[in-house]
Amino acid sequence: MGRMEPIRAETRTDDAVIVTEALTKVYPTGVRAVDALDLRVREGEIFGLLGPNGAGKTTTVGMLTTRVIPTSGRALLAGVDVVAHPSRAKRLIGVVSQTNTLDRSLTVRENLYFHGRYFGLGVRQSRVVADRLLEVFRLADRANADVGTLSGGMAQRLMVARSIVHRPRILFLDEPTSGLDPQSRIAMWEILQEIHADGQTVFLTTHYMEEADRLCERVAIMDHGRILALDTPDSLKRTGGGDIVLRMVADGDRDRLAQAMRDLPGITDARVLDGAVHLTASGGEGLLPRALAHAEAAGFAVRDLSVDVPTLETVFINLTGKELRE
Question: Are residues 105 and 167 in the same domain?
């Protein structure tokens, strides 16, 4: 793929380019979608907001991108207050929402070209940037196609390409791979990693833990409008309370099984989720046979026992007592 010098973001620093201070949104129904959010996102990083549907992720992006007016608190983009100066803030950002917002009356290339013209690029520069983005986003062979003929993955790539035509300082992606097939999702991840390597600051929301783990330098785990944890993916996984995770399915009272398993040395947590007992454990050597024997000694016939390494979902379960997927 070609390099992307025409859309290079500013040189990376440790300064925060996104700052929120007690940012809050309460809807007229009384729902507190975002509750006193404090965030600092550094220039040039991929920052992920991870949480289930309804956690407040989309509302957060809406406030940061001027589409949703906060109830209280404030948000700054590169020092610009998004409520006091929405027009200035909009020129700093590129936004890709969950809804397809492509202009269906234009071709693939024209969607890029006219976006550049709208943001003040000259005729020649808009053409150059559009053609280069078509190459980078693997859409050159569809340049003259109607956007209505694009697959879901292609349309999503075109929306991301369009969002960075004007070289935004910050790119906001709300669930960028939701609904995509696995192949299209991986292709999107590769493109996002490439534009990030060119210095682009990216703020994305997702409920895919693998996406956050693979792409993000730091992740905030959100639920019910509040941040429950914030760190690098590896650091978050190390706080999960164990080295491995066991999933045990057995006949009988699962709550009583969870209570019994807490007595086994090495088990740091036991919870009932989706008809199984999830065990967090440290020191995995010989744990499987010991766990099986302990459950059987407590009077349970184990039908299935599997083991995995901690994930961001493990962290979420330990924080909330529920699974991340909803």
Answer: yes
Q: How confident is the model at residue 7 (pLDDT cuts 50, 70, 90)?
A: very low
pLDDT at 241: 52
pLDDT grade for 14, boundaries at 50, 70 and 90: very low
Does the residue 315 lie in any domain? no
Question: Three-state DSSP class for 230?
Answer: strand
Same domain as 216, residue 82: yes
Domain region containing 266: 241-309
Mean pLDDT to the nearest integer, 104-128: 94
Element (H, E) at 118: helix 108-118
Amino acid at site 44: G
The answer to whether residue 112 sits within a structural domain is: yes
- The sign of the CA dihedral 228, 232, 237, 243 is negative
In whole angstroms, give the CA distance from residue 60 to residue 116: 27
- Inter-axis angle of helices 123-136 and 152-163, nearest 10: 140
* 129 and 274 part of one domain: no
